[in-house]
Amino acid sequence: MTNKTLHIVGAGLAGLSCAVHAKARGYNVRLYEASSQVGGRIKQVGDHDNGTHLLVGAYKDSFEYLELIGSVDQLQPVPTNSYQLCEGPLYWEIPAQGFFKAILLGKVPGVSLWNLFGKTAQRRLWDPMVLAVFNTPLKQLSKKLAWQTLREVLQSGPDGLTPYLCQTTLHNAFVAPALVGLELSLNTRLLSFDNSNLYFKDKTITLDDQNKAVLCLPQQAYSHIKAPFQIPKVKSSPITNIHFYVDHPVRTAFFGMINTTSQWVRAKGKLISVTISHFDLDRTSLADKVWREICFHLDKAQTQTPVHKIIREKHATPFQDDAFISNKLSTKSPLPHVFIAGDCVNTGLPATIESAIRSGKWAAQAIFE
Fold this sequence. Notes:
26% of the residues lie in helices and 28% in strands. By secondary structure, it is α/β, with parallel strands linked by helices. The chain has 3 domains: 5-74 and 168-234 and 322-366, FAD/NAD(P)-binding domain (3-Layer(bba) Sandwich); 79-161, no CATH class; 236-317, Polyamine Oxidase, Chain A, domain 2 (Alpha-Beta Complex), CATH 3.90.660.10. The protein has a 5-stranded parallel beta sheet with strand order 10-2-1-14-18, with helices on one face. Strands 7, 8, 15, 16 and 17 form a 5-stranded mixed beta sheet that branches. A 3-stranded antiparallel beta sheet has the order 5-9-6, with no helix packed on it. The longest helix has 16 residues, at 119-134. The radius of gyration is 21 Å and the shape is globular. The mean pLDDT is 94.
């Protein structure tokens, strides 16, 4: 064990990943979180996740992280190893292995090689997939980021698109095991920093060669922090999740919906969760509308809308257009004692679980260079 200490500001996935990797290399780790809850974008609500997060086989850094904290078995592939979508009564299924070949062979109704980028393909394939991955509409999405992501998935091998879901909660898989043995300070907000100090409301941490810092903060948080160098401001893209609590268990399902307000639905036990990406509309009657949309596909009569909870994440992800990509930062900041992780770092991926974990890993590696 070294006598060096790493001070990590932000206990989202980037911060947790940095902590786990730094600890594995023998560093003493101290973690500071501004809120009363850890986990960032995968924080827990009650006894379930705040929203449904899908992982794929190409997420090598995520699986490595789960191996390090001993919870990789909590992720299991979707039983069908496919992506199921529907538009009204029409259903189709795209296998994860041979995904693009299946599209060319007509697995998506009305789509083939000859109209791969036509209106039908955009509505039934590209729009739902792009929104699910990037939380940014296809027309505004950075093409550079899209191609980088596609290239990495293709290079990861035949299992790169195999979909995985957490069997319990993401908190149990990604957060709780990572916190074991870490020194954590909640409700500790960073006010400013320089190369020599981190200034919190109630304490100051001195930085030197033995005490370095990694900032793992949401990009919008920097607008409230006095910094000696510029962190580019970005637009945010919201996500709305609706959780329905039903009286009797429903059949387990995970599928996407086309031409509806509802976009992706996960049903398990007595919980039905609906995710709506890049969605920023009034909540009025939203739950009733979504409930009517999903009932048919879950073999449920259109009864009165059950008890539910609407969770709107205003800053769920950055809006991932060309401006966002052009303002990405390096892990190494202009200050030798301060490093950066999180969505603002150029990992080559969209703002996902994998990107957050990768950025934290890179920061932990950078302090040794």
